[in-house]
Each structure stands twice: as structure tokens, then as C-alpha cells.
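Need C-alpha cells for this chain, all 437 residues.
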Amino acid sequence: MSTTHEELRIEAPVDALDTVARLAASGRFAEYVVYERPGEWVFAGDTLGGVELDTDELRVSWDGQVRATTWVGRPAIALDEALASLPIGDRQAYGWIGFEFCAYTLDAEQHLEGVHELARLMVPRIEVRIDGSGMTIVGCDDAERDEIRAIVNAADGPDPLAEPVDIRADATDYRGRVATAVAEIAAGGYQKVILSRKVDLPFAVDMPATYRLGRAHNTPARSFLLRMGGLEAAGFSPELVAAVDEDGVVTTEPLAGTRAFGRGVAADSAARIDLESDPKEIVEHAVSVRTSVAEIESVAIPGTSSVSDFMTVRERGSVQHLASTVRGQLSEHHSHWEALEVLFPSVTASGIPKRESVDTIFRLDGAARGLYSGAVVTVSSEGVLEATLVLRAVYQQNGKAWLRAGAGVIEQSRPEREFEETCEKLASVSPYVVRRL
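Here are the C-alpha cells for all 437 residues:
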């Protein structure tokens, strides 16, 4: 397998969303990851190798060769060491970690019966990077570059049409599960838990078309589209779980507190005022920030943790949230992956305290979450890492497609309001789901 890593720079305006969606839909790439961060879009495909972490096995592949071993201990360390064993040079790795990844650090391994996949990382041979001034094609020969440009410049097809999705059916008794959690919180079991509900889709989904349509109507912190192994997903992430930059600064962005958005200026303004003054939402956000600060302090140099933009309102598609940013300087005694490990799962997708809330999620949410409330991850050979929270997404695997959304439950929660919040969040994706023909 070729490992050519030359670059071709094209200085010309590029429609980034259209470009990555075309590449994904082309059929040229068996596996791929699209990742959008502020100022840059990346399409990564044609796998050189990677790491697959299951509950019972670790598989490391490179240039067609696969090495399978058992593993013990912490999954973040297993991934870090496996990735470090690959000769990736200056390449990036892309992939995902599932919610169940957290079970090993939160004493919840007893809940993993029937769970198999924990994480997948791939090192691509080809990357197409798009920024504000043009496009860079990395890792392929002249013929492949011509092929990519032909895909990008092909004639436009018809605009995708979304399929109606019913998001209001309560097939898993979400209201009843919320009521159970409220009672457990009142009895002192924990402070907060994020319970979720799954909405099955009665048709196969065209993921690239759904991503293109959904991204045009959303304002995410990050977005992603992936096909890895048997899993496909497209999403519009509202927040970072963790980022560690080249200077070792660790960042997380807890969002907690939600109201609908996009219903008109007057309605949106009223909802914002209500959000900023609702004691339940303020408490929910404040305890999330406090937990995030404590987590970063556990891996940061003492005295470097800080909170900025405290309790500002950020608009994310069909909803608006209370948001804050928490940072700290990573200690030399901790790795980038350990920073992710301590912040994962996001406090705004699990609860407080994390151990008790994760136990409750396994008990009350039912089936495994998988990628939902996990993270899409990018990591460099130098360890620069970013993990974006997987919410506001559509999923497809083993012939089934679904949506999923949750809400934060505290003692003041009302089941009907939390159900309505899941509907508001689902509305970031449900109007844009395209049937695969």
C-alpha cells in the first residue's frame, strides 16, 4: 500500500460542505471520516491502518497486517500505546470512542455484558483539507488527485429531500424513567443524570445527503460524518468534551440548560430570558461547571484552571444552551489521553457525580448507548487531541437507523418538560434525515 504523503495546494474558494459531502457520497472510499472544526474541514479516507478496541480484544493494523491481543487496565492507555506503536509520522488519526469506554474508570464494568465495540481509530492515506482560502490534497498521486478533483467538480444533482420523522412517540417510557430518577435524586442517590431516548427510523438513511442538509441548518461547535466498519453517523456537535493543544492547554466546554431556538425572534428572545432566569437550568449548569473544573484540576498544574464565558447563551441549531469554557495547563505527569479520560464522558451527557450517574444510565437507559454521548476524536502523532461530543446525530448500523437525545434530570425536573427538551434537541436533526434510495 502506498504511503505517499505529498501535498497539492489549490488556492481558490471552495464550498467545504459540498466538497466533503461529494467525496463521502462518491463510493470511492470504503471508510472515511469528515471532521469540521472552526476554520477547517477535513475529509480523511483510504485507511493505512488503525486501532480497534473491543471489550475483549485490541487489534492494531498497518499496511494490511493485523495484530490482535487481549488488553487489561484502562482503555485510554491501551489506545495511546497502540497508536504510538504505528509509524504514522506526521499524519493524524481520526475515529470515535463510545459511551461505554467510561465503564473501566467509573467501576461500571459489570454493565458491559453484550457490549462489544469501545473505540475505533483510523490513520488515513488521503486527506482533503479545506480552509477559507482553498483546498489541500494530501497523500495521493497525480491520478488520484485528478480523480478527487473530478468528484468535487461533477455536475450538481437534485437537492436532497428529507423524510418526515415522528419524534414524539415515547416508546421507552421516557417520562416514567425521568420520574424514577427524580425520586432517586430526592433520596440522595446522586445530584443529576442525563437520561436519553432512542427514536428508531423505519428506513435506511443516506448519510452524506443528511449531513449536507443538516449542516446547512445547524450551527454546531464541530460537525462530523463517518463510515467506519459497520457504523455510519452524521452529527452536529454542540460542545467539546476535551481538547489538548500543542502547548498542553486542556479545554472543555460544558453546556447545560436548554430552550428551543429558531421559532422566531420574539419566541427565541422569550426563551432565552426564561433560560437565563430558570433556577433549575442555572443550578444544572453551575454544578456541571464545578465538576468540569474539578476534573481539569486533577490533571492540570495547580493554579492554572480557569472559567471563561461563564453561563453565556450559545445557539446550536434548534436549541440554545447555557455554556461555559473551562481550561487548565496539563501537568507533565499526565498525558493528553489521560486528560480526555478524566473528562469523559462529558458531564453534560452523564451526570453528577459521574460514577453514580453512569451507573444510573446503564440501569435506566436500557440498551448500550454506543456512539451517542461518546466522542469523535482526532489526534496527531505529537498528541494534540480533540474530542467532540456526539449529540444531535443520526446513526446507522446492522441495517438499522436511529436518532437519540437526552435531557439533564435533577430533583426539580418535571418528566413532561424533560421529554419536551428531548424533542427540541431531536429537532436539530429530524427535519433533515434523507432516505437512502
